[in-house]
Amino acid sequence: MALQTLQSSWVTFRKILSHFPEELSLAFVYGSGVYRQAGPSSDQKNAMLDFVFTVDDPVAWHSKNLKKNWSHYSFLKVLGPKIITSIQNNYGAGVYYNSLIMCNGRLIKYGVISTNVLIEDLLNWNNLYIAGRLQKPVKIISVNEDVTLRSALDRNLKSAVTAAFLMLPESFSEEDLFIEIAGLSYSGDFRMVVGEDKTKVLNIVKPNIAHFRELYGSILQENPQVVYKSQQGWLE
How many domains would you assign to the chain? Predict the structure, then answer.
């Protein structure tokens, strides 16, 4: 039986996705609006849904999206899709976000990233922003048959496991491992020093052990560096 997310359903995600241009190499939704978290956000049944759209041609995609969803963009929309794409690719983590959008009755934000930029981040952790998101449970709504992208998604998870091993003792629990993995993308995040909940990583992992196990179980079973006692939730 498929693991359950919050009340937000697959149908809801697909209906929201239908409001955007179809040319997506990958689309996923993440965060407390999808997977239950402990702490202050645990009761946010109507929490904002966070989407990421990966596109092969961001200029063409933004051009179509501006025609469909002009109101989603800031004043940058008057500068056109090429300027938006330039800002997306050359500033920050390579992602352009539109936020606080009402879509299909839900509050959402969505980030747009070039497929090439995402693959580079997955393989080399250039920013570890979207790659970091994908090291934690997310709900993938759409993914194409791009072999390079699929291979990079898998490599990102295996790299996260290897990095976590280096920070753990000779034996440890599944929870210990998943906390290390979930914390990778926050390690250099200034928000974890000022402004962010210090227990954020723990709040993400504890209610979602089963989702982390689903994401990493086969990688751990096949990894020659570790003996994975899945029934006991223990690794050596």
Answer: 1
